[in-house]
Amino acid sequence: xAATISAGILGRGHRFLLLCHTRRTFASQTDxxxxxxxxxxxxxxxxxxxxxxxxxxxxxxMYEIHIESEEFKEKRTVQxxxxxxxxxxxxIKAMHGLRIFTSIPKH
Length: 107
What we know:
Blueprint: E1 2-10, E2 15-23, H1 31-43, E3 47-54, E4 62-69, H2 77-87, H3 89-92, E5 97-103
Parallel strand pairs: 4-5
Antiparallel strand pairs: 1-2, 3-4
């Protein structure tokens, strides 16, 4: 997987633009995605489904997480999201953003 990061000045306000260009196939998983999945598997051993997608183009700046787990049973959505944030507390320090979708398995 190849990635290019570039920064430049835009306009008079000296704003910096950070671009990340990554070539990857749909079947591949970035190192960041794999790391987040591994942490979530350790923290939510009863999870029946975990999906992590780097939505920043492969830079690792923003992830979308879908996790289905019995651990969320009888918890409000905000509590479920807090559990995920706590589980990823170290990884979140290097992220720009995170989208979390949680659910309880339907039997």
